[in-house]
Design goal:
Length: 276
């Protein structure tokens, strides 16, 4: 083969390789397909989140819908929902702490407030009573928010997470506070420590991958909200209840996780352990 022929063959080979990589380098069809797939995945994630919130909202609506309320009570309920956008308000009768917490567990917002219908009616017809309990709700949500922030740093160290907090107000005016807790296993704590050391870009990429895996698990009927990507091992969870936020905080700090058995992630709607 002459030098000219050899050079021509080299040119042809180089040109073929360049054309093969062109879509990737220039954002051609293959790359556009990848981007479309990513967009579809992102849209699917949003749709799935919206579906989950819609189901929870439906459960809350059914809880309140089963209660007969006067027009004034309904108007007050709407007023509270509009004023406190980070609170799920639920109206239902309950006969035990477990039942109250089960109802509160249906919420999807930062806080849940359960009010018995008799008290809501009294609030709707008496401005003084209304102001009293609206004041309790406002002060409580602020204190609970501060409590969660205080516990956040400690939780990152020992693997304890406050999953949700709620308030129940009985027809006799009794106010109770609930906090649902989860304890990460050793493998989970190792991942928490590893994640803490990663930079923001790596965390964002990992979160995206974790959400994809979690979505695939849910589509296959995998673990529910207790489980995140890589967290399919047994977990410890419990719910604490107290008559004041200060007492609730002390109970949360005093939970003896050694006395709580680890369980595989429960399905949505599972009951809670009130052993604390």
């Amino acid at each position: 083969m002459s030098k000219v022929d050899g050079f021509n063959a080299y040119q042809n080979s180089f040109f073929s390789a360049a054309m093969k990589d062109m879509p990737r380098l220039t954002g051609g069809p293959e790359n556009r397909i990848d981007r479309r797939n990513e967009t579809k995945a992102d849209n699917s994630k949003v749709e799935e989140k919206n579906d989950k919130m819609a189901v929870s909202a439906k459960k809350i609506a059914e809880t309140t819908g089963n209660v007969e309320l006067s027009d004034k009570a309904k108007a007050l309920l709407d007023e509270l929902k509009q004023k406190y956008g980070n609170v799920d308000f639920m109206v239902a009768n309950y006969s035990s702490e477990e039942e109250a917490q089960e109802i509160l567990s249906r919420g999807t917002k930062e806080f849940g407030v359960l009010i018995e219908p008799e008290l809501l009616e009294e609030m709707a017809n008496d401005e003084e009573v209304k102001n009293k309990y609206v004041g309790i709700i406002e002060e409580s949500t602020q204190k609970l928010s501060d409590m969660k922030e205080e516990l956040k740093g400690a939780g990152e160290e020992n693997g304890t997470e406050v999953r949700s907090v709620g308030i129940s107000i009985g027809s006799d005016g009794t106010v109770s506070y609930f906090a649902e807790l989860k304890k990460a296993g050793d493998a989970q704590k190792a991942r928490i420590e590893e994640n803490r050391e990663k930079n923001a870009e790596e965390k964002a990429e990992e979160k995206k991958h974790a959400e994809k895996e979690a979505r695939e698990e849910r589509l296959k009927g995998g673990p529910d909200r207790y489980a995140r990507a890589g967290e399919d091992e047994a977990v410890k969870s419990t719910t604490v209840k107290a008559d004041s936020i200060e007492a609730l905080l002390e109970k949360i700090k005093g939970v003896n996780w050694d006395n709580i058995a680890a369980k595989t992630p429960a399905r949505e709607g599972a009951r809670f352990d009130f052993s604390v």
